[in-house]
Structure formats: structure tokens, C-alpha cells
Write a structure and sequence with these properties.
Low-confidence stretches: 1-44
Structural class: alpha+beta
Distance between the termini: 46 Å
Number of helices: 4
CATH topology: endopeptidase fold (from Nostoc punctiforme)
Number of strands: 7
Shape: globular
CATH superfamily: endopeptidase domain like (from Nostoc punctiforme)
Strand order of the largest sheet: 2-3-4-5-6-7
Helix content: 25-40%
Length: 187
Amino acid sequence: MLSISDLAGRAAPLSLVLIAALTVAACTPTTGDRMGFASARDEAGAVNLERRAYAVEVAKQMRAKRQRVWCVPFARNASGIDIRGNAKTWWSQAKGLYARGHQPKVGAVMAFSATRRNPLGHIAVVSGVDSPRQIRVDHANWERNKVSLDMVVVDVSEKNDWSAVRVMSNPGALGRVYPITGFISKG
């Protein structure tokens, strides 16, 4: 028979997970046909659920105050990579501070290159690696002022090097091609 103290000890971690799940659900992801918690892992190779929940909660609070939700603070909060400034500067700022590469891994920040249509660039946090040419990302402001979780991204580069991607902004439909600078990670 379990005592009340046994139940309390087991309930605390469970309630934390429940709160995180409810927080993410309340933020109303804009794409993806599932929330993707099954893909979340720990430091050994996946999304940190506490960081993800915190990033979503901060974005939710900003929206409630009618403040703009940007990709940079969301990615910083979700990944723990402490870089500031426009997304287009993250790759160069990461040099010597963080690992940079051209292969996705869960928890890494994917840096979209600046373009005429997107002069400030964009960043997203890799939330899952589905195959050598398909990943999922968590990011903010892909759709204005919203958080998108587990959005599908497909490598369409000719050399299979993740230098060009298409993002599934609408379920079942990949958008235009976006150039990618690379992936930034803690190591």
C-alpha cells in the first residue's frame, strides 16, 4: 500500500510533466499533426522538455501582452544557446563559442540564411531527426507571432548537405526553398 508521502513524491515529477504538456498545448502550435512529445529526449540527443515548455510559456506571455514573438528569443530559450542579435548573425557569432556544422542533430539551432524576402534571417531548434533528409523543428514567428512545434523540414539541396530546405508550413504542403547556413549546437 502506498503512503501519502509516497504518492506526493511520485506526483511532483508527474505534475511537472503535465504542466509542461498543458503549457505547450495552450500555445496552439500552428503546424504539424501532432505535438511530438514522443520525440523529445534528454541532453544525450533530444529536446529538453523544460526548456521547450519555458520557451513556449514566455511566448504565450508575450502574446497575452500583445508583444511580438520573435524567433531569436524563442530559440535561445528553447536551446540554451546564448547568442543575441538578429538571426542572420548567429552563425558568425557562434564561431569559437559553439559547435557549428552542416548536419542536423536534436537540440541544435538551424540558421536560415538572410535573403531578400527574409533580410534578418531566421532560426529554429531541431526537435527531431526523422531521416537523413527530414527533420522537425520548433520555432517562433514563422507564422507571425506564433510558435510552431515539430514542423517538418526537408533537405532539398543537390548535394544532400542541408544547404537548402523546404518547410511544411501547411500540413502536406512544402513551401518555397530556403537557404540554410548551418546548425549551431552546444557540442
